[in-house]
Structure formats: structure tokens, C-alpha cells
Amino acid sequence: MPLRPLAREQAWLLPPSLDELLPEDHPARFVAAFVDGLSTATLAELEIDREGEALGAPAYHPCGLLAVWLYGFMTGVRSSRKLEAACRDQISLLWLTGCQRPDHNTLWRFYRSHRTAMRRLLKQTVTVAMDIGYVDLALQAVDGTKVGANASADRTYDATGLARLMERTETAIAALEAQNEGSDDEPPSPMPPELRRAHSLQEQVRAAQERLASQEQPTKVNLTDGDARFMKGRQGIIPGYNAQAMASPVKAPAITHPGLLITATDVVTAPTDYHQLAPMLNEAEAMTGGRAETTLADGGYHTAANLEAGDQRNQTLVMSERYGESVRGPYFKDRFIYDEATDSYQCPQGQTLPFRSSMAKGNALIRLYRASRVDCRACPAFGICTKDKHTGRALWIGSADLLLRRHRAWMETDEARALYARRKTLIEPVFGILKEQMGGRRFLLRGLANVQAEFALLAAAFNLKTLWRFWSAGLRPAPSPAQG
């Protein structure tokens, strides 16, 4: 077949219009509609003034800069320098900015000034989704993922390593100062770059030593990002953070794959998820204005305290067992039968474990039941049930044991198994999209407060991708510009 002529110097026959080059259902158009639809009160919460100042040189419109950052996060472009290049090259960003080309310094100053306030955009996206009416609050899933910090593992030290580094730094400073000493008659010269860097390192080491001295944890600190912790993820042990997210399904008859909605986020320095469930339940309720009936979580959240929190909130928790297969063993403590009349337990082999003593653990009272060591040594299950040669098998029974047993029985039902099977399809795709499609495998900012804001904005961009599907399908008209 014949080929079309390729002429890169071809001129426009008519003056071009960017609006003609951008499809009507393009995500950039939805971002613009979303930002233009923010009310004056919402913009004030974001510390954005739509009117600007009366005097001074004209500045870039803050709504335009906000749209650039939101679209950048949606498309995986989170660097101010890459956004600057995209504002020059990409039709979508040229359209968003009205053919203006803010440089990376302008973009960074706006982001630095508003990133904490922009955490409120996540709530705004959730509110819009709730208004649509297709969010299924009957079910939600929570999980955590390790996200790398903007820091090198080689710059992590314990107290001994910091002391050695301080000694080497002070020696280097003394040598550099000796090299740069001049006569009294010479005018003072600027501090050499090498000496300036050495003094900066000295200040970093001193601050890190003070941090370690004032806290029992952590035992190590990173000089680049003092809040980052060593965490084990799929990429190995890296300095990073534990990012938490709660997600709910979105349903719409007219859309084949409507997607998911993030209803709560957090970033913590603790490597485990044990203490994160209750805060995430509270955050999701505050975001959506409603309480989900069922929450899906993996074994990382399985604790008696979390089960009690769900019970108090009257929320069903579908959560795998933290102890794994051990709870199905023939001599797990659930197999022991309690006799209320004698306040004792009977083991599967028929031996009695009478009440021995009690102790306080936190706010809970723990009761100890222990069998005779003579009976246990003579039992055919010795070595399986217990290996203690000096005392018999012991059971520590707390106030939450009944709740734990009830939850284990619930998890054996077909209903619970069917619900738990949905966990992977609800929350794990969220992290896959955030990391692989939106570039969220590693934080670009440093410090806990900053990465919390960064992750919240990343989640808001995720929700905007979901909302865009509804907008492009015509299920919701574009928000009208806010008045007043």
C-alpha cells in the first residue's frame, strides 16, 4: 500500500487550538473541572486565594498550579523538574496551564507551601464519590505496605557508629581549618565548600546523637531522613515507612471496571500493623461519614485489642489468624474445655488444669491454669502439648480469650471465608497501582509529616482516577465553578 508523506516541517493551515487536540473525555479535563469546582471555603482550607493580590508582578494562578500537581500525581510525574518539562512538552499540561510554562522553582514553592494543606484533597475526593452514591460502604479492606524513604541505607548509624563518624568529622574539620588559616592582615574569605560540607555533616551527626539519646527507640538513625526506619519489604531491608490505606469498592452498572476508592491513609514509622487498625477505622469513618459493616484485614492486624475495638464499634472484622496453622493443632488452648463449677480446664487427654494464680498485664487481668508436672510427664502427648520438664502445661487466659475463640469459629464459616477471599481484590490492587502506575514505590520527600502529606496526595490522585471513569461515562456532570 502507498505511504503517507512524512514532512516534519508541515505548517498548520489554520491557527491551532489546544482544545481541539485534547479529547473531550481526557483526564486533564476532569482535573480542571474538579479544581474549578472547589468552593472558596475549600480553597481557603487549602490556603489558596483565587483572587490574588492587587499589587505586584502577576503570578501564576494557584488553581492552575494545583491542577498541574494533581495531574502529575495521577500520571506518575511527582518531580518538580519533570513537571516543568511536561508543561513544555505535553499537550495535556499545556492545556491545563493555558500554554503557560511554570518552571520547577515555581512549582516546588507552591508544593512546599501547600502540601500539608493539600492532605484535605483526599477528603474532598471521598466526598465527591459519596455524592455519586456508588461507593459500597458495606465492605472495606485495610492493609499496609513498605515504601522506601528518600534516604540511603549506608547513612544509617547506631550510637557507636555516630561517635566514630563524629570523631572523623571533627578531625577533618580541624585539618581543613588549618589549611585555610591566613594572616591577621588578610580580609576574611568565604568558607571553602569542603569545610562547609564538613560543618553541615557535624551538625547532622550531633542532631542524630541527640535524637538517639532522647528516645529508647529507635536504636539506629538515618542522617538523610531521621524519621525513616529499617523495614523488611519485598525489595529487602530498606530505610522506609509503613504506609496504610483503607479501600472500598465502587459499583456502577454502566461501567465494566468502576475501580476502588481509598477512604483513609496514614504513614507510620512502626514496621508492624498491630496498632494501626483502630486508627484506620476511625479515619475511614471520619472521611466517609459512615461506618462500614465489614472490614477485611490480614493476620498482621490480628490482636485481641483490635478484635475488642471492632466489637465495641459493632463492626465485623474478617481477619486471618496471626498464629497461622498453630491454632489448628490438637493441643492449642482452644481444645481445652473449661469447667465453670471447679474453675478449671480439662486437656484433650483428660487431665485437669486447676486455677493457680492471676496477674495484671496492662489494663487486663490474666489468669493462670496449670496441670501437674507429674501428669504431663506421664502423658503420651508430652513433647507435643508441652516440653517443659519442670512444670506442667500452662494456660494463660485473659478477658479477650472468649472473643478470640468466637472470632476463630467465625473465620471457619463459609461466609467468612468468602468475604476474606475478596481482601486481595480490594486492597492489593490499590498498592499495585500506587507503586507501579503512579510511581509511589519510593517517597520523594523526607520526614514523617512530609511523607504523610505526599502519600495523602497520592491517594487523592488515585481517587481522581476512579472518579474520572464516572465523569467520562457521563454519570456525573462536571462540577460548576464555585461562586463567592
Number of spatially distinct domains: 4
Q: What's the SSE pattern?
A: HHHHHHHHEEHHEEEEHEHEEEEEHEHHHH
Cα-atom Rg, whole angstroms? 30 Å
Distance between the termini: 60 Å
Strand content: 15-25%
State the name of the first-level CATH class of the largest domain: Alpha Beta
Instruction: List how many beta strands DSSP finds.
Output: 13
The major beta sheet can be summarized as:
6 strands, mixed
SS-derived structural category? alpha+beta
At CATH's second level, what is the architecture of the largest domain? 2-Layer Sandwich
Amount of helix: 40-55%
Figure out the total of helices.
Answer: 17
Please, what is the CATH homologous superfamily of the largest domain?
Answer: Ribonuclease H-like superfamily/Ribonuclease H
* pLDDT < 50 runs, ≥5 residues: 477-484
Average pLDDT taken over every residue? 87
Output the CATH topology of the largest domain: Nucleotidyltransferase, domain 5
Q: Descriptors for this entry?
A:
484 residues; alpha+beta; 4 domains; disordered C terminus
Describe the protein's architecture and organization.
With 484 residues, the protein is an alpha+beta fold. 42% of the residues lie in helices and 16% in strands. It has helices spanning 18-21, 27-36, 40-45, 62-74, 80-89, 91-96, 104-114, 120-132, 159-179, 193-214, 277-288, 304-312, 373-378, 401-411, 414-420, 423-437, 448-472; strands spanning 139-148, 156-158, 220-222, 229-233, 236-249, 260-268, 294-297, 316-319, 337-339, 344-346, 352-361, 364-370, 394-397. Strands 1, 4, 5, 6, 7 and 8 form a six-stranded mixed sheet that branches. Strands 9-10-11-12-13 form a five-stranded antiparallel sheet, with no helix packed on it. A hairpin with a 5-residue loop joins β10 and β11 (352-361). The longest helix has 25 residues, at 448-472. The termini are far apart.
